[in-house]
Amino acid sequence: MLRKKEKQIVSDFEHRKADPAGPSEISEAYDLGEAETFGKLMLRMFRENKLSAVSLLVILLMILCTILAPVLTPYGETDMDLLNRLQPPSGDHWLGTDEGGRDVLTRLLYGSRVSLMVGIVPTLLSMVLGALLGVMAGYFGKWTDTVIMRLADIVLAFPSMLLAMVIMYTLGGGLFNVFLTLTLMNWGSVARIARSETLRLKKSEFVEAARSIGVSKWKIIFRHILPNCLPTLIVLFTLNVPAAILTESSLSFLGLGIQPPGASWGLMVNMGRQFLYNAPWLSFVPSAAIMVAVLSFNFLGDGLRDVLDPRLRKQ
Amino acid sequence: MSEVLMEARNLVKDFPAGRHRAVHAVSDVSLELQEGKTLGLVGESGCGKSTLGRMLMHLIPPDSGEILIRGTPVTGLSDADFMKYRRMLQMVFQDPYASLNPRMSVRSLIAEPLETYRLHESRQETTRHVLELMSTVGLPEEFLHRYPHQFSGGQRQRIAIARALAPDPDLIICDEPVSALDVSVQNQILNLLKSLQQSRGLAFLFISHDLSVVRFISDRTAVMYLGKICETGPTEDVFREPLHPYTRFLTASVPMPDPHRRQERPKMAAGEMPSPISPPAGCRFHPRCPYAMPECSRTEPELRRCGERQVACHLEK
Amino acid sequence: MEEALIQEKVLNKENLSQEKTLVIENLCAGFPARRGEVRVLDHVSLSVPKGKITGLVGESGCGKSMTARAVMNLIRHPGRVTGGRILLEGRDLLSMRKKERRMLQGREIAMIFQDPMSSLNPVMKVGKQVDEAVLVHEHVTHAEAKRRTLEMLEAAGVPDPERRYHSYPHQLSGGLRQRIMIAMAMVCRPKLLIADEPTTALDVTVEAQILDLMKEMSAKGTAVLLISHNLGAIARVCDDVSVMYAGKIVEQADICTLFDRPRHPYTRGLLSAVSSLRDGSEVLSVIPGHVPNLARLPAGCSFSPRCSCRGKECMEKTPEMREISPGHRIRCLWEEPGKKPGEKELETEGLAAE
To answer: What is the ipTM of this complex?
Structure first.
């Protein structure tokens, strides 16, 4: 907690027009002995922001569960047991059973594979696509900029759910199409942010220095611009993942995503709707899981931003 | 008499500023840089010296005029064609906090020009060269894998200088390299630059607003005001016997670190430097010049040669 | 606390002879860090007499800005003042109630900063901003505030004040903006003006004008504390000077004494560095090394690792401030001016001479 406030003093002092006589008093007082590697960075985040540290653990735990799903539960994903339908949580079924007699916990664990994968993979893809296009638009300008940004505008202008529904409806359901939809929906905002970062970095002196040395355009993009966009993009990633999870949930809820008998959290919420009075856990449990995942990524994003951004903003 | 390394002829650069206005950053500037010598370019902020420096580095294209390197015109060349000249032309920037990529280690930063010009076969050779350069500029070996934010301003400038030295250039353009440093650190860097010039036969274009610094390090000095050169000549001559009124005021205005001389009040220039968007007609300095004559508001004085010096002033007739 | 007693005695003696607007006694400030408290200010004592300009000089990181902020109550958490007194015309600012202290600010103490652009509201006309400074502290009509503003703009040397009153900051040059800042600071006729690097961002031809303006202001009775790393600016307008290093005052004297007979090796180093740039030396004088990390100060004298005259004692004992001649104090273990503990005498050179 302390280090965060120290940083605040530094940024307060230094923001007053970078002291032309040198580093501010307090930054000199910092123990800047060793290089801060990624590992040290993580350690510092854990020390300063307990919430994001906990969130990271939760996320890792969830990922572990998805991998170990078959091991963790004796039941199969789609094992029906019609004699035991709609059972409340008990010793045999920790989270009860659904309308087909399937174990809710099992479906939750298998469903997490879909939901988390759908959260992470398309977001990653849209990040890569958006970052590349955004940086190109920002760095090359003119026609490249116009074309890419107008495309991004089109994507951004559509109400996202509508776009998703249209794509899914045309292509049909299924996991792959969900991935595609989510990737196409999200690259626009990433591109816009990457472009504005690029415009800012293009003017910086170290890019000018690289140009004066004669470094080629693409090398400048990959070595100077992208690495400095990384903090912003990493944070954006952790904040977009929850959005993707929610979108998938909504799509499945609407019947456009994963089809039964497959499991996904959104689907489970949907199916459980009919039984809200007599078996509320059917919708409640997957909703809670969605909420925990979304919150964890959000807090992780906050923690990462605190640790990564201010240090680089100062430069 | 040294050979001419780089020559600028009638360079002009305007930046658009709104619909019908432009910032006349550089207006008809001609300069000569000699091999192995330092040319100091001095002027206040807004006079266009940084823009001029960047044009000479081929970072900004001039609107008109020519730049010649050892007699060969290089003005219109594309970036790719200019590459063969890049190696001999390096730059050190003003802000030691902004001119180094915060995500690159010292090794990567200094090695960048070596890798760009493919000067070494193996990574080890490159690293060895980097260590050599670090010791030349006075950086301990341990700093090799550290990052810029861990260093003080003076140390960062040393890194920037090592980077500029890496490809063994013939000319280094220094844009206010010590303005952001404390006086003692500044002196260390200036000593370093001077010794590098002597040991390697480097030519420098030293851009600064600080007259004392320019006086120390330059063999010749050019004084710039509002986009134009008003005076050039051997440094000592320009400082001891300034010919142009602006130079006279510049040298007189510098606060002297001597309390016994504070009562001296030489004839001061009134007001401040006007905006380069609408420079005054005729001689650009005439509204502030206590020696102004009617002619000064009508025609712009040409840069005229007087021996080793050049002046642009109607008084010199 | 021998140091505190000596300080008090010396200051009391001086207080009797001259009216002191600002007296800082043994000011300590710092912030808690991983390895214990980091001392940013360590027993800083200085005074600014009425109608005079006192200079506070030092390189970056020495604590001079921090001192100013301590007086202006601008130190933000977790930095804090940990000891000492700040007396404004006899009243201790540190022991006042928050409300009382806030009322003093702007009215009796004012501060101007290095970059006027960041201190002025870019979307408000400058005239209005100066009016605001009046209206916040005094109950007068808008018309009266405007009158005072125009008066002040004129006193600050703003040409054509009527027209400039309606300008926005970005329409004005750096020098004009700084004049507006000064007008804003002076419009309530403060007893003390603190100027933190007021000319560093300005061109040299304007610098002289602004410094002269401050001289005029001080002649009218305002006490001015001028903070700068530029010895030339200090030499031009200050009446006395304090030199700071690593959070401590290391030398204090009136202006001519400091430039003619500097005693502390750091002061000598600084003056020598500045003068070597102008006297045609082939190699410039430097102080080897660099300013220490405040969190890891060396044992003994903070300057000792870089000092060319250091003795063994210097690295063990921390020197206290002592007076070597009336009004001239240094923080150094040299027993007599010019005599190292147990060693030969140092030549006395007038380093300011050209």
So the answer is: 0.84
State the sign of the Cα–Cα–Cα–Cα dihedral C200, C204, C210, C213.
positive
Pairing mode of beta strands C53-57, B171-175: unpaired
Touching subunits of C (3+ CB pairs, under 8 Å) are A, B
Contact state of B179 with A206 under an 8 Å Cβ cutoff: no
Residues 31-50 of A with CB under 8 A from B: 32, 35-36
Q: How far is B161 from chain A (nearest CA, A)?
A: 12
**What does the pLDDT average to over B253-270?**
72
In chain B, residues with a C-beta closer than 8 Å to the C-beta of C207 are: 253, 255
Which one of 1.10.3720.10, 3.40.1550.10, 3.30.70.2660, 3.30.70.100 gives the CATH number of domain A75-302? 1.10.3720.10
Report pLDDT digits (tens) over A46-88. 777 788 888 888 988 888 888 887 777 777 767 777 777 777 7
| pLDDT above 70 (res C347) | no
> Measured between alpha carbons, how far is C336 from C262 in angstroms, rounded to an integer?
13
Range B4-88+169-256+264-316 has CATH code 3.50.30.60: no
Domains for chain C: give ranges and CATH numbers: 2-108+190-331 (3.40.50.300), 122-189 (no CATH)
Per DSSP, which regions of B183-260 are E strands? 203-208, 220-225, 228-234
- Identify whether C288 is preceded by a cis peptide bond (ω within 30 of 0): no
Q: Delimit the domains of chain B by residue range.
A: 4-88+169-256+264-316, 106-166
Distance (Å, rounded) from C-alpha A131 to C-alpha A191? 5
Q: Per residue in C52-82, pLDDT tens?
A: 999 999 988 888 888 998 998 888 877 888 8
Phi/psi of residue B267, nearest 5 degrees: -60, 115
d(CA C30, CA C37): 7
Tell me how far the alpha carbon of residue C92 is from its chain's centroid: 19
Residue of B183, B216, B260 with shortest CB distance to C270? B183
Residue the block writes with tokens 């001392």: C39
Q: What is the pLDDT of residue A69?
A: 76
For C107-159, the pLDDT digits (tens) are 889 999 888 877 888 888 999 989 988 888 888 899 999 999 999 998 888 88
CA dist B73 → A5, B6, C46, C281 (Å): 56, 10, 62, 38
Closest by Cα among C302, C236, C242, C256 to C24: C242
Burial class (CB in 10 A: 0-12, 13-18, 19+), C354: exposed
pLDDT of A259 above 80: no
Asked if A21 and B86 come within 8 Å (Cβ–Cβ), the reply is: no
- Confirm or reject contact between A43 and chain C (CB < 8 A): no
- The Cα A66–Cα A60 span in angstroms is 10
Give the minimum alpha-carbon distance from A49 to chain C in angstroms, rounded to a whole number.
16
Q: Which ranges constitute the DSSP H helices of chain C? A: 2-17, 64-71, 98-104, 116-119, 126-137, 142-155, 161-164, 174-186, 204-219, 231-237, 255-260, 265-276
Cis peptide before C78, with omega less than 30 degrees from 0? Answer: yes
Q: Please state, in angstroms and rounded to a whole number, the distance separating the CA atoms of residues B180 and B213.
A: 13
Angstrom distance (rounded) from CA B259 to CA C262: 13
* Residue C14: per-residue pLDDT: 53
Residue B291: strand, helix, or coil? coil
Burial zone of A212 (CB within 10 Å; 0-12 exposed, 13-18 middle, 19+ buried): buried
Q: Where are the domains of chain A?
A: 75-302
Asked whether the beta carbons of residue A213 and residue B90 sit closer than 8 angstroms, the reply is yes
Is B271 in CB contact (< 8 Å) with chain C?
A: yes
Task: Classify burial at A25, counting beta carbons within 10 Å of its beta carbon; exposed 0-12, middle 13-18, buried 19 or more.
Answer: buried
Burial label for A114, CB within 10 Å (0-12, 13-18, 19+), is buried
